């Protein structure tokens, strides 16, 4: 197996991918419609919208498989993002790059792959729209043109998502009262002026003279370290038992 080389503009490419804030999000009908159309048009059992992250490929939308991601080193799509042209592998068993790839030797047993790069307006290729078959195959000229159009439509949806996020954040900044801190409702991180999410103690340390020490509250101790609570309670019970025994052994003690 030959893992794909890292693109020369990898840091810029990953930054472009992160700006969409889409990794790990739930399935969405707009993207699922596109992968379904790709599968039907190309008559393949598998179609994916694959985003190539630093060490994995993650599937925003998928047809025909259940996995959410695979290692980047196994990824056909990591090879496809090196050029604007589609990567078409008619039979992976005849291609030295993929003949012993775990995705060829094992599930989903790829034989045919056609990946069409997802390219933003700055020529950063963040992933692919691809179709896969378990037997050797090929695409007609018409099928290739349709896949290229569908890949462009995916990027249109991604750019709309990015613009919507920026508009929402801009609106929130303009309407945020002085002294207000934006915090995440889930992890409780705070957002700084550059839009980066950092821990609240770090946020306040940079802006105040406050210093922080760290411990674990009772609720977190019970949730994350129940074995410590059990050991503590066992120790208390042992101590109480010894204390009672000592009292009974004192002169003049009446049971």
Question: Overview of this structure, please?
Answer:
The protein is α+β, with helices and mostly antiparallel strands and about 260 residues long. Helices cover about 40% and strands about 15% of the residues. The chain has 8 helices and 8 strands. The protein has a 6-stranded antiparallel sheet. Strands 7-8 form a two-stranded antiparallel sheet. Strand 5 (about 110-120) and strand 6 form a beta hairpin. The chain is extended, with a radius of gyration of 28 Å.
Number of contiguous helices: 8
Quantity of strands, as a count: 8
Mean pLDDT comes to 87
How helix-rich are the residues, as a percent range?
A: 40-55%
The oligomeric status of these chains comes to single chain
SS class: alpha+beta
Which spans have pLDDT < 50 for at least 5 consecutive residues? none
**Major β-sheet, in short?**
6 strands, antiparallel
| Alpha-carbon distance between the two ends | 80 Å
The helix/strand series, from N terminus to C terminus, equals HHEEEHEHEEHEEHHH
Query: How much of the sequence is in beta strands?
Result: 15-25%
Radius of gyration: 28 Å
What's the gist of this structure?
The protein is of the alpha+beta class and 255 residues long.
Topology, element by element:
Blueprint lengths: L9 H9 L10 H14 L3 E7 L3 E8 L5 E3 L5 H4 L6 E3 L12 H4 L6 E8 L5 E9 L7 H34 L15 E2 L5 E2 L1 H8 L10 H7 L1 H24 L6
Antiparallel strand pairs: 1-2, 1-6, 2-3, 4-5, 5-6, 7-8
Using brief descriptors, characterize the structure shown.
single chain; 255 residues; alpha+beta; six-stranded antiparallel sheet; two-stranded antiparallel sheet; 41% helix
